[in-house]
Amino acid sequence: MTLTSTQSPLAILGGTPTVPDTAVKHWPPIDDTDRKMVLDSLNGGKHAFGPNSQAFQEEMAAWNGNKYGIFTNSGTAALHMGLVGCGVGAGDHVLVTGYSWSSSATCIIHHNAIPIFVDIDFDTINMDIDKIEAAITSKTKAIVAVHLHGLALNMDKLMAIANKYNLKVIEDACQSHGALYKGRKVGTMGHCAALSFNQNKSLCAGESGMFLTDDEEICAGAASLWSFGETRTPLESRDYHAYALGWMYRGNDLTAAFGRSQLRKLDGYLEAERSNAAVLRAELQDITGLILPTEPEGHSHTYYNFSIRIDMQAIGWTGDPVRMRDAIVKAVQAEGSWCCVWQRFILPSMTVFQAKNAYGKGSPWAEHDALDIDYNPANFPVAQRHSDTHFAVIMPLRAPNGPDVAKLTGQGIRKVFENISKIDPDQILDSK
Question: Is residue 22 domain-shared with residue 171, that is, in the same domain?
């Protein structure tokens, strides 16, 4: 007799895991094309900003539909470059979502500007656009528009507000390569954009990123920050004179060679993510207690992160949601279903913002009369609810994994939720 998932003991309680150890394959897939391009770069003798670096920024801009691309050493650098290219300076206010990776907000204080947080919309996990206007101040200069987890913001509504208040929009598309809004790729609708190519991204080059824009003036400002504050890039005849505050944000040729090779496969990777996500969704669709990702009309989700929320009321839990979520995650992981808690903290609760002391002596808040800005986490209840109840499925949806792995992953999650009454957070989290 075959045991049903309800009858079969949970793996964390001594049962057999649902997903075999070897089922989920590593990301990204590496083949002979990758090896050849990287070795050719290694043997080529130009290991700083070289010919692959130049080619990568041109190819990435063309793939995304932008006029200009600048190859950087990280998505964080590209975000900082966007702020500078858009004219954000010391003391300016910049709106940003209350829930994202820390770089979405710390890039603002990199240039001594002041982050102003906006709560999220629970369904999309993106910034709640209906709350933007209430957050705008007389000092607001720009919006960091984060397309989180592979889902684009509603850019029509966002750009209407930005245009009304004469604000620049820096698209943080670091997690959303290829995500569409009304048929347009993210990174083509604001004034400029940032992409990331680190280990976990849908295009992995190990580390690095890309700054994108269609505006020549914005591009020039970003390029100056990118290369020591100089006005001439490494592709031109440099005078090595610093005309403004600058960093060294350039990417190297070896990394660019890897990125170029992976870019040739990116469309296929994105197709696999969407296809595998559809299989996972079908497996989880009718499970009590799960809130699955949404894809609003006019949007095309890439499912960089298949973010699941737990409906604590539906599963009958009235205690600490974080402890129950963490216990469930451990149980799912024990089944072999790869999952994680992606970001445990909402951004306003992070110490750098609570202390308002990024550079010492209260900088940049103290010198810009911004110490009274309220970062009380209680002002961002939707972001907090999401942060406390979510878990993420990422790697099982990535190539070379196929629908079989997505289905197995879903079966492991289903097994845990069909045995949810057996999940005791104290037993699971506090046991040695």
Answer: no
Instruction: Judge if 47 and 19 occupy the same domain.
Output: no
User: Which residues, other chains included, contact 15 with Cβ-Cβ below 8 Å and sequence gap of 6+?
Assistant: 8, 9
Torsion 285-287-293-294 (CA) sign:
positive
Cα-Cα-Cα-Cα torsion 131, 135, 141, 143, nearest 10 degrees, comes to -30
Length of the chain: 432
Q: How far apart are CA 232 and CA 151, in angstroms?
A: 36
279 with 244, same domain: the answer is: no
**72 and 106 housed in the same domain:** yes
The Cα–Cα gap between 85 and 73 comes to 17
pTM for the predicted model, two decimal places: 0.95
CA–CA gap between residue 166 and residue 171 (Å, rounded): 16
Mean pLDDT across the chain: 95
**Rounded to whole angstroms, what are the CA distances from 348 to 101, 150, 153, 173?**
12, 22, 21, 21
Which residues touch 344 (CB under 8 Å, ≥6 apart)?
Answer: 387
On whether residue 76 sits in a domain, the answer given is yes
Q: Terminal CA-to-CA distance of the chain, rounded, Å?
A: 34
Say whether both 258 and 269 belong to one domain: no
In a domain, 356, yes or no: no
Query: Do residues 246 and 224 make contact, with C-beta atoms less than 8 angstroms apart?
Result: yes
Q: CB neighbours (10 Å) of residue 36?
A: 12
Same domain membership, residue 236 and residue 198? yes
Number of domains in the chain: 2
CA distance 94 to 353: 14
- The DSSP element (H or E) to which 199 belongs, if any, is none
Which CATH number covers residue 237? 3.40.640.10
* Alpha carbon distance 283, 416 (integer Å): 13
Q: What is the largest CA-CA distance in the chain?
A: 78
- Domain interval for residue 388: 11-26+265-343+384-430
Strand order in the sheet with 184-185: 184-185, 180-181, 299-300
Which segments in the chain show pLDDT lower than 70?
A: 1-7, 432
| Residue 142 within a domain | yes
Q: Convert the pLDDT of each residue in 114-168 to its tens digit.
A: 999 999 999 999 999 999 999 999 999 999 999 999 999 999 999 999 999 999 9
Residue 360 lies in a domain: no
Among 249, 264, 279, the domain boundary falls at 264
pLDDT digits (tens, 9 = 90+) for 364-394: 999 999 999 999 999 999 999 999 999 999 9
Q: Say what the alpha-carbon torsion angle 66, 69, 75, 76 is, to the nearest 10 degrees.
A: -110
Distance CA 302, CA 277 (A): 9
